[in-house]
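#structure-requests
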Amino acid sequence: MKLAPGTTVITNGQLLDGNGGPPVPDAAVVVRDGRVAYAGPARGAPAVEPAARRIDAAGGTIMPGLVEAHFHPTYFNVAALEDLDIKYPVEYVTLLAAANAKLALECGYTSARSGGSLFNIDVWLKKAIESDICPGPRLAASGREICGVGGLMDWNPDYRKIGMEGLVLLVNGPDEARAAVRKLVKDGVEWVKTYPTGDAAAPDTNDHHTLCMTFEEMHAVVATAHNHGLKVTGHCRATAGIKNALRAGYDAIEHGTFMDAEALDLLLSRDVPCVPALYFEWASVERGPEFKLPPRVIDGHKETLEAGAESARMILKAGGRLGMGGDYGFAWNPHGDYARELTFFVKYVGLSPLEVVRCATRTGAEILGRAHDLGTLEPGKLADVLVVDGDVAADVALLEDRSRFVAVMQGGAVKAERLAVVPS
């Protein structure tokens, strides 16, 4: 992804630098050749050349681009998990993924970590974005996911004589787990996504208290992935599954729903981040009847919602790290609604707007492994900047409204905007 040459100055707004501190009023951000040269009070900003581009924040907020830490670019707003399976050919899913990536960028998400992708499309989508072939967030790819045979993502009965190869790699034992990771290594992924536990949304009997992989399988995944420099994460709802993942050496936890004190201690001792993805649960409960979700599934989502919110509060209060990512791509939780996850964490979970912004920027960059380049507005970092008309520190729900985005900047280039960028 090319960095924009030249100088851009953003003024007339408050600065949220992503570190969680209070807003800096009357701030300025100076961007030179795609990187932040200055971010702080306007009175301390360095002089710039007369030809520098200027963006007026209109009294609003200047902040880092958002990070979607659980992104499914190939999920196409399906009405059930089973709809992901061979519903569309790879060619069409690829086009849908490119459209979702463009939409995410327009929603202010300048970076994302894939939480699993059909046909390894995210690997090639990342290449296309980095080559400036199509717009989208900076992407960490995970390709196909790994699940134990008979687990959450293995819903096709044997008599159908079809596999799940486009969606997941099914494993039965440590040897097959190692082989699956090696396939992903060849495919070029950065993260290996697994399914240690079930889910309330399971189309079979694997509910959110079911274990879908053995510890030995999980340990084999981690050892093989780490040997090749890859990171491992897992869909972990059941308490035992969370503990197994942490003991096996996982680098992140998705959901972390039913977390007890022992699981929290394991999480904190290794400083493992968790991405709760809770708005999905709320949407499943509130809109589930509209999409004819079975009552037992909705009840499961209710239990998951309450337990997940309590776990998230527990993690942050204890000094742990939360990433923001909403598991979007379902009919009741569609692409484009990404920032509703942030509002939900303020209004329902009880975090402050500044805490949520930090989770959605700095912590997201840490999860990506790119905190040295992304996540905060500090000198030397890539100029991925979101300029918003309004006070985000007072009302994080402003981030749901794309019409309020004065500019979405990526590497110093304005990729989406509402107001014109005019020279001085």
